[in-house]
Amino acid sequence: MQYPKISIITVVRNGEKDLENAIKSVVSQSYGHIEYIILDGLSTDGTLDIIRKYEHEISLWKSEADRGIFDAMNKGLDLATGDWVFFLGCDDVLASPTIIEEVVAEITETDGIYYGNTYLKKSNQIYTGKVSKWNIALRNISHQAIFYPRSVYKQKKYNLDYKLTADHVYNVELYSRFAAHFFYMPKLISIYNDLGMSSVNIDHQHKKDIVGIVYDNLGSAVGSYYWFRVKLSNFKNSLKGGK
After folding, report:
1. Most distant CA pair in the chain: distance in Å?
2. Measured between alpha carbons, how far is 86 from 225 in angstroms, rounded to an integer?
3. Which of 11, 107, 154, 203 could form a disulfide with 165 if both were Cys (CB 3.0 to 4.6 A apart)?
């Protein structure tokens, strides 16, 4: 595909402080074949005023109730018509005005899952590098840095049992089936606000289930390794707490 359509989806609720910067980073892209979708969860601040300000540059937007961020993201997957889909948080921005054009230049496989890096503002570090079955259990691919092809996103939705980290489960399950279709691009895709909800809160259902998910999808060796790393981390944290 010479000019694939890239669907960029932003979900937001009461994001008036940051949303305009996210929108500007999308509508200023040099690449012309972008479908931009914004899904608002019935904001009560000035979010809708910002969306209306840019609605001539937004392909589609809605404001309606949802059951959380991943329910809204699933709605976005249903609405998207692009060859690839990408999620940009309302308080995140694309790394440069040419980054989507640069990503498209890397795309060669119709069913490829392409991913790069994001910059964590609070932590002041680049995340995450190339993944393998050994490290994807421990560190997720940021959804602000991964592009899913139509063959994936139209068939697979986020599991709403996981309120904050359903994207980690999503990626582990995909990697278990399509590892050969994951293609790493050593590019900075976005600048990510790692003070967001999923960064500062715990998804207790994910914490309860993730060892089993890793065992089931990545094998017993990886599952045992992950279990050991979790136990070691908990032990170290308990020592710190005892000081």
Report:
1. 59
2. 31
3. 203
- Give exposure, 80-94, as e/b (b: 16+ Cβ within 10 Å): bebbbbbbbbbbbbb
Spatial distance between the Cα atoms of 26 and 28, rounded to a whole number of angstroms: 5
CA 86/CA 81 separation, integer angstroms = 12
Q: What tokens does 147 get?
A: 């592009």
In the numeric block, which tokens belong to residue 44?
């009560």
- What does the CA dihedral 110, 25, 194, 156 come to, rounded to 10 degrees? -30
Alpha-carbon distance values, 69 to 85, 87, 104, 128, 161 (Å): 16, 11, 27, 22, 12
Name the residue with higher pLDDT: 239 or 177: 177
Residue type at 124? N
DSSP, collapsed to helix, strand or coil, labels residue 223 as helix
- Tell me the pLDDT tens digit for each residue of 33-44: 999 999 999 999
Contact 161, 170 (CB under 8 A): no
CATH topology of domain 6-241: Spore Coat Polysaccharide Biosynthesis Protein SpsA; Chain A (3.90.550)
φ, ψ of residue 123 to 5 degrees: the values are -80, -15
Helix (H, G, I), strand (E, B) or coil at 184: strand
User: Sorting pLDDT into bands at 50, 70 and 90, what band is 183?
Assistant: very high
What percentage of the chain reaches a pLDDT higher than 70? 96
Give the ranges where the chain is alpha helix by DSSP (H): 19-27, 47-53, 69-79, 99-106, 150-153, 166-178, 197-200, 204-218, 220-241
Contact in structure between 88 and 8 (CB atoms under 8 Å): yes
Predicted local distance difference test score (pLDDT) of residue 242: 54
- Residue 189, phi then psi, degrees to nearest 5: -90, -40
